[in-house]
Structures are given as C-alpha cells and as structure tokens.
Amino acid sequence: MNRRFRDVFEPYEQSRETDMRIALLALAAITLTACATGAGGDRYNDELDRLSQSCQERGGILTPAGTQSGRPNTDYVCEIRGAGGSLPRD
Q1: Residues with Cβ < 8 Å from 3, sequence gap 6 or more?
Q2: Three-state SS for 82?
Q3: How far is Cα 65 from Cα 51, in angstroms, rounded to an integer?
Q4: Alpha helices in the chain (DSSP H)
Q5: Which of 34, 51, 52, 62 has its CA 20 to 30 A from that of 17?
Q6: How many CA atoms lie within 13 A of 81 on its CB side?
Q7: Neighbours of 76 (CB within 10 A)
Q8: Taking the model in full, what pTM does it have?
Q9: How many Cα atoms within 13 Å fall on the side-chain side of residue 30?
Q10: Contacts of 59 (CB under 8 A, 6+ apart)
Q11: CB-based contacts of 55: which residues, under 8 Å, 6+ apart?
Q12: What is the pLDDT of residues 13-29, one digit of tens each?
C-alpha cells in the first residue's frame, strides 16, 4: 500500500516543484525588467532636459521629430524661429 501511495503522489510533488521554479523565474524576470525600465527612464529625461535647456539658450524650442528611437537627440529637434532677420545689403 505504501508503494501505491508513492506512485500516486510523486508526480504531483514533481509538478509542484516545476510550478514553483516557473513562478520564481517569472518573479525574477519582472524584477529585472522593472529595474531596467526605471534606470533608462531617468537617463532619457535627464538627456531631454539637457537638450531642451541647450535649445532654449540658442533661442529655440524643442519639438518632436516624429520618431521614437528612445534617444532624445534623435526624437527631438531644436526649432529656431525668427533668427537672422533680413539678408545683408551690399
């Protein structure tokens, strides 16, 4: 009778171990993704702020370029309006 009990419940125990491993791997993946996303977001915003300030110092305004590359220097352009005035005369 003891052997029959083992034959019935041993596959169940192996299945629980596999389920636990999958759950732990999923938790680890979610944690790593959250860390990677958080660090990248701050770097992007810091670079965007630096570009915006540089553009304003030149008398321009930072505008979207229509792309989404994850790099602010590619995703935005400094648009300078009203600069130059008229053409020089002879």
Answers
A1: none
A2: coil
A3: 13
A4: 2-57, 72-75
A5: 34
A6: 3
A7: 20
A8: 0.47
A9: 6
A10: 80, 82, 83
A11: 61, 62, 78
A12: 566 777 778 888 887 88
